[in-house]
Amino acid sequence: MNSKYVKFGVATGIIILGLAYLAFTGVQQSKSYYVTIKELRTMDSSVYAKRLRVAGNVAPGSIKRQGSHVEFTLVEQDLTLPVVYNGSEAPPDTFVDNAQALAEGSYGHDGVFHAKMLQAKCASKYAPKDQQQGTPAKAPATQRTENSSSSSVY
What we know:
4 helices; five-stranded mixed barrel; alpha+beta
């Protein structure tokens, strides 16, 4: 009966170690480092093996599309980064010139960022019209309508 418990303990230990290994490798593969273009340029050769996220503004006139393949340039202050996106989905509708974009992928030895995922936002598109011009939006006026048909008792 003692050997039965040993076999059960060994089997349980193997299962727990297997699950721990899968959890650890899953976390390692899914984590990505957020870096600026300036930080990306100053990193050592380990940058080529890491999954990265880089943000910037899309340079005007730099977007070249062919289906879901997109080439563009990110700009941050005075630094630029060429990006190639080869994703399974087309870029979002908000991905336009001067939009803020976040690219996730890897940095290649060729100096090009190879993105697997793109996010884009255009905050001015969703802001109220008055706030786009720098003035706060006024609260909409509410009207209270009274019942115009009065009932009289004779």
